[in-house]
Design brief:
The protein has 183 residues and is an alpha+beta fold. Helix content is 34%, strand content 32%. Helix 3 runs antiparallel to helix 4.
Length: 183
């Protein structure tokens, strides 16, 4: 069952995928793999394939609430963390679209009708619940491994620079590897 709300929506495209977002967030900045209204604490839609390990792993580690949910039959992971700089909770909702993983960042601690609508408006994915949550689990495991290696390395700045480089030339290797080996 889809969301029925009286809110106006605008379309944005992120990494070639179209999303219907609340119109109040329609004057943001678009990049190849992101749409950001003001900043990541206010509202954003991100394709996190290229940096899923650091993005998901980092937010999962610090989240106060972690819950697996389903929106319109699609698996989603909802993370909530308190942000002391804005004195508010910020949510990170991860979900599959086609063969990619997207994240909606927004203020609040619940998945309301407007946020659900964004997920529902996206193209579907054949990714099963097990494949999606397994991919996120693998991303977090690799994040922890990197944190451990950083703690062992005498020159953490060099290792972090080498493993956390998010230039546009990065690839979605973890997502592709996981889907090929587990789908």
């Amino acid at each position: 069952m889809g969301c029925v709300c009286a809110e106006d929506f605008s379309k944005v495209t992120v990494n070639g995928e179209s999303f219907e977002i609340p119109s109040k967030f329609s004057s943001g900045d678009t990049g190849p793999t992101k749409y950001v209204y003001k900043d990541l604490r206010t509202f954003a839609v991100l394709c996190v394939d290229d940096y899923i390990i650091n993005n998901y792993g980092g937010f999962y580690k610090i989240s106060d609430l972690k819950e697996e949910i389903s929106i319109d039959g699609r698996p989603c992971m909802h993370l909530v963390t308190y942000n002391k700089y804005i004195d508010r909770n910020v949510s990170y909702l991860y979900f599959p679209v086609e063969k990619s993983v997207y994240c909606i960042c927004y203020q609040g601690n619940d998945v309301n009708e407007s946020i659900s609508h964004i997920v529902e408006s996206a193209n579907s994915s054949d990714m099963s619940d097990d494949a999606f949550f397994g991919l996120l689990n693998e991303a977090f495991n690799q994040y922890q491994d990197r944190q451990y290696l950083d703690s062992l390395n005498d020159d953490n700045s060099y290792y972090s620079y080498q493993t956390n480089n998010h230039e546009d030339s990065s690839t979605d290797q973890l997502v592709k590897w996981y889907l090929i080996t587990h789908w």
